[in-house]
Fold:
Amino acid sequence: MLFAQKGFNATSTRDIASKADVNLGLIAYYFGTKKKLLQDILQRKIGFYKDSFIVIENMNLSTIEKLNAMIDVYINHMFENRHFHLIVNTEVHSAKSNEHKTHFNNLIYENAQIFHRIIENGIKKNEIRKGISYKYIMPSIIGIVSIHIQSEQLMKKCLDIDEKNKKADNLYLENLRSYLKELLKTYLEK
Structure:
């Protein structure tokens, strides 16, 4: 959360230790450096997707059902972890953090490979149309969800959703899930 609020460079290990209510030496002992701490955060958060996606990949579901389950996991986790998304946007995508960007991109690439395998198997099983540009799908989903998180107030305003209504939050996420699922189904199915 501190990385999201202050930025990676402006957050000291002393700030982190204070916020976590731990001895400063513990951070050095377990992570070594602040960079390694951020990489560990990325690994755990993005690793959650990989673990979930592998479970979904091995389920006895149709291709579309697997992709729908992946969308549910992705949206739920992204919106529950908005602060993490802010860290990714401010640090990983900045020109200053090439090491973080490479690490992040490698983790996302592993997740994309699972997504691609599911679609490729769906094509082999004749559940998905042949000849589609399916490798653009995951980046498109990431982009759509990212813009909704980064500009949530604007998105809700554009969609005429009352931001003060807590029930509207659930409706907003449900509509986003439904939209992405319908988009996939329309694009992928025969």
